């Protein structure tokens, strides 16, 4: 198997930054879509995958909750990446020369104050790292790109301004995925992620959640989404603190099973220290 880690986007994307942070020993493999990332691992072209699951500003990443259960992969780690936005341009370009920048649509509003202060127009691009690669191949001396510092390093661009985001809290959470589950206790702070469907009985969700409260299990995430386009089949995605072998987690999961038709653990993994 090739020692690679697959991610969605171009080299220099924030997903690439997550790969470098989690597994610098693996070669990063850029992919066009999330489905391509999963296929790369299942086909053996990569041994791990890095997928974004949620962002502190924009919420959950579309389609990820649907893809994870069907992927055949298991969560073995999490990575929190602070979205630090840099303004970059071709070497020799001055900040006062920049008239327009390109970036992914979600980055532009996050740097609005900086752009307005410098009279710089913004244009949406499909991918910020891809926009950086295009700028590097061209000759423009009045254009820039908003992207990660890693993108500037990879594509030979010069960073004219660091950390230009309006707010310093924007963070994306990524999941490190592998073909084989790792259920070992690898940290004092473990996380467990699972999906479940409640039985069609009154107050099923309320009763199912009761076991976590009475057993002192901290649930850090609970989201619902439709299954198969049905308005009656609802699946829930949950993250809890703890390991399935912990007695209080065992009791909570046993109670949950009583009120569910289906319960699948997607992964057991160490909590990223940045979580706290």
From TrEMBL:
Domain of life: Bacteria
Pathway(s): Amino-acid biosynthesis; L-phenylalanine biosynthesis; phenylpyruvate from prephenate: step 1/1
PROSITE patterns: ACT, PREPHENATE_DEHYDR_3
ACT domain boundaries: 193-270
EC number: 4.2.1.51
GO molecular function: prephenate dehydratase activity
The UniProt record lists the keyword GTP-binding: no
PANTHER family registered for this protein in UniProt: PREPHENATE DEHYDRATASE P PROTEIN (PTHR21022), PREPHENATE DEHYDRATASE-RELATED (PTHR21022:SF19)
Protein name: prephenate dehydratase
Biological source species: Seohaeicola saemankumensis
Lineage: Bacteria, Pseudomonadati, Pseudomonadota, Alphaproteobacteria, Rhodobacterales
């Amino acid at each position: 198997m090739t020692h690679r880690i697959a991610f969605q986007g171009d080299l220099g994307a924030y997903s690439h930054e997550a790969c470098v942070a989690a597994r610098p020993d693996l070669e990063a493999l850029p992919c066009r879509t999330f489905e391509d990332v999963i296929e790369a691992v299942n086909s053996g072209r990569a041994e791990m995958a890095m997928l974004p699951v949620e962002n502190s500003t924009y919420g959950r990443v579309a389609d990820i909750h649907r893809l994870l259960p069907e992927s055949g992969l298991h969560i073995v780690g999490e990575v929190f990446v602070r979205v630090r936005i840099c303004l970059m341009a071709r070497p020799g370009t001055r900040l006062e020369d920049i008239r327009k920048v390109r970036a992914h649509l979600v980055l532009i509003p996050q740097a609005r104050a900086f752009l307005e202060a410098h009279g710089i127009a913004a244009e949406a691009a499909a991918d910020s790292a891809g926009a950086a690669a295009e700028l590097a191949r061209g000759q423009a001396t009045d254009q820039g790109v908003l992207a990660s510092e890693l993108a500037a390093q990879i594509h030979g661009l010069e960073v004219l301004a660091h950390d230009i985001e309006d707010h310093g809290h924007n963070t994306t959470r990524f999941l490190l995925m592998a073909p084989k589950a790792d259920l070992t206790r690898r940290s004092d702070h473990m996380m467990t992620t699972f999906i479940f469907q409640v039985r069609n009985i009154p107050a099923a969700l309320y009763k199912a959640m009761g076991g976590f409260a009475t057993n002192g299990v901290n649930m850090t995430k609970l989201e619902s989404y439709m299954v198969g386009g049905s308005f009656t089949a609802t699946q829930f995605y949950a993250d809890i603190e703890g390991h399935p072998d912990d007695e209080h987690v065992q009791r909570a999961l046993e109670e949950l099973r009583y009120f569910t038709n289906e319960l699948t653990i997607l992964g057991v993994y160490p909590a990223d220290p940045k979580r706290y």
